[in-house]
Design brief:
The protein is of the alpha/beta class and about 475 residues long. It contains 19 helices and eleven strands. Helix 7 crosses helix 9, helix 7 crosses helix 14 and helix 17 runs parallel beside helix 19. Bound molecules: pyridoxal-5'-phosphate (PLP).
């Protein structure tokens, strides 16, 4: 049997099968609440259901969908389940998923402005909308020296910012000759509660984990700005080069917010790059009442990033990164082999986004952000976040009112951290039982020296009843 173009790219067939797949997804959402949130499959079970070799001949869609039902869905933890409260949300929406589909359907590459101008210009424009919605300072607007870019993840955004900071600090020395950490080493700073992507980025950027200073936090898990100040002073005095400071707005463990204005003052004094990691909490800045805490100090940041794919109803992956000055980023990451040379790039005045990221190729991610903002609208997005925050406050009240439990911190936005007064082992065992029960899914972290349960509210389908049911499930598992 030869190649059948209709099997791969036939409009009529795609129309038919596309409808079937969209129906399948809609049915999945509609029945989601009735499923256990977490899968109970054993390691290797999914693979044991799969044939050992790829098929030689075409199979019809209905057979594939049947297998999806038989052994793929049962092997999933359902992140879009209304009772999913683990980690941070990776929420989604119909409009964003349609944007994703359009991106795949168009199948364009936006590495250069010239390779698909609309891909670049929509991204620049939507990120201008977004910085404005968040109330970020104008220094991040594309009309000035800065601008925004969509990356796959907060980890990638932070890595790119670090590489730009490294080149700014070494005046492109490390770009040419590699990083020399034997004399006057570059140093990176973040709080002890900062995300593990900081240390990973430092390793990948050739700075090395030895030169990552994890600064102490206060009782709430926010960076101790005075300790940071001392650490930079000690390093500078010893001839080391403070290069990159990460302030976290919404730490992964407890949602703590570092004191960005004080951190910025220290970074500025030493000429270090300040990156703000607001991966999860950043989305809440669209609500004016939460904004001041979230964007405080942003006017002094060199880069600021958050994940619309966490809490802004844009499906994974979509990280928004803004820089105040695009020059060091482009200097650090640009590559222009002959086959990509073109008139528009050489004339200047266009953005070539491959110069703002690690990979060359890039897909049309802006579509899903654009469609979410247009088809849902800013005010309903704000309402979703407000609901989540209000339910977290209510949940925290229930925890406080139960003498068997202890609230470890006041809730941070929609994140509640709590534990059993009986101690760490009973708390860990309770989490196991709750998650095994399938009626709610939570995760854990170390908060205030304790094994904490984390309830992170952020699901698009989550409602107050799901939060109340989670509390019932937790108490029922005691
Ligand atoms: N920063 C913070 C504060 C996070 O909580 C996370 C993940 O939850 C990340 C960075 C990493 O996000 P990503 O998966 O987009 O790299």
């Amino acid at each position: 049997m030869g190649f059948d173009p209709a099997a791969a790219f036939d409009a009529e067939r795609f129309r038919r099968e596309g409808r079937a797949v969209v129906d399948w997804i809609a049915d999945y959402w509609a029945a989601l609440a009735a499923r256990p949130v977490q899968t109970g499959v054993e390691p290797g079970w999914v693979r044991s259901q799969l044939p050992t070799a790829a098929p030689e001949t075409p199979e019809p869609l209905d057979r594939v969908l049947a297998d999806l039902d038989r052994f793929i869905v049962p092997g999933l933890t359902h992140w879009q389940h209304p009772a999913f409260f683990g980690y941070f949300p990776a929420n989604a929406s119909g409009p964003s998923i349609l944007g994703e589909l359009l991106s795949a359907g168009l199948g364009v590459q936006g590495m250069l402005w010239a390779t698909s101008p609309a891909c670049t210009e929509l991204e620049t424009h939507v990120l201008d909308w977004l910085y404005d919605l968040l109330g970020l300072p104008e220094r991040f607007a594309s009309a000035g020296t800065g601008g925004g870019v969509i990356q796959d993840s907060a980890s990638s955004g932070l890595f790119c910012a670090l590489v730009a900071a490294r080149e700014r600090a070494t005046r492109l020395e490390s770009h040419a000759h590699g990083v020399d950490q034997s004399t006057r080493p570059l140093v990176v700073y973040a709080s002890a509660d900062a995300h593990s992507s900081v240390a990973k980025a430092a390793t990948l950027a050739g700075i090395g984990r030895d030169w990552v200073r994890l600064i102490a936090t206060d009782a709430r898990g926010a960076m101790d700005a005075a300790a940071l100040d001392r650490a930079l002073a000690v390093d500078a005095q010893a001839g080391r080069r403070p290069c990159f400071v990460v302030a976290t707005v919404g730490t992964t463990a407890s949602g703590a917010i570092d004191p960005v204005p004080e951190i910025a003052a220290t970074a500025r004094r030493h000429g270090a790059w300040l990156h703000v990691d607001a991966a999860w909490a950043g989305a809440a800045a669209i609500c004016p009442e939460y904004r001041s805490e979230i964007v405080a100090g942003a006017e002094q940041a060199d880069s600021w990033g958050f994940n619309p794919h966490k809490w802004l109803l844009v499906n994974f992956d979509c990280h928004a990164l803004w820089v105040a000055d695009r020059e060091p980023l482009v200097q650090a990451l640009a590559a222009r082999p002959e086959y990509l040379r073109n008139r528009a790039s050489e004339a200047g005045g266009v953005i070539d986004y491959s110069d703002w990221q690690v990979p060359l190729g890039r897909r049309f991610r802006a579509l899903k952000l654009w469609m979410t903002l247009r088809m849902i609208g800013a005010e309903p997005l704000r309402e979703r976040i407000r609901d989540h925050v209000a339910w977290a406050a209510e949940f925290a009240d229930w925890v406080e009112a139960d003498p068997r439990f202890e609230l470890l911190q006041p809730p941070s936005l929609s994140l509640v951290t709590f534990a059993l007064r009986a101690g760490d082992s009973p708390t860990a065992a309770l989490l196991e039982r709750v998650n095994r029960g399938g009626r709610a899914f939570l995760s854990h972290a170390q908060v205030a020296g304790r094994h904490a349960l984390r309830l992170a509210i952020g699901g698009t389908l989550t409602d107050r009843a799901a939060v109340a049911a989670a509390w019932d499930a937790i108490r029922g598992a005691l």
